[in-house]
Amino acid sequence: MSKTEQNLKEAFAGESQANRKYLAYAVAAEKEGLKQVSKLFRAAAAAETIHAHAHWKNLGMIKDTAANLQDALEGETYEFTKMYPVMKQEAEAEGNAAVAKYFGWANAVEEVHANLYKKALENPAALAETDYYVCKVCGYTSEGPCEKCPVCGGGAMAFFKVDETAL
Questions:
Q1: CA 110, CA 155: separation in Å to the nearest integer?
Q2: What average pLDDT does range 51-70 have in this prediction?
Q3: 2, 74, 77, 106: least CB-packed within 10 angstroms?
């Protein structure tokens, strides 16, 4: 691996983490009534996404849709079959019940994502047009509105419609 490739991978990881961190900070600032600070964090998060996308592209990691779906399916499958079960077990062993519970929720949601990618991979051009909704509590992803989250039990108000223009 060249130094440039190594740097691109490191930069992609750093920019991706910064994006998520800044979005979490934006939510916290909103809860404190600091709207302008929240906007600043969201703006910086959007910029970090642009950087991450450029690094991923420069690594040659963006392929055709079928390859991208396959890669996503493999990642989600790894998470729900190997990563989260171990993490949940380790959290339980350490007495971190709340963390173990959330790892369990994340595990269930990753399996849902894998199944959605599998469905899309069967015939991407024929995938039925629908809106996707995501639970704010656990991340459960639903094709169409959902009255109650089957993973965490959150009600209809826990869901938001995914905006296709989001970075």
A1: 20
A2: 97
A3: 2
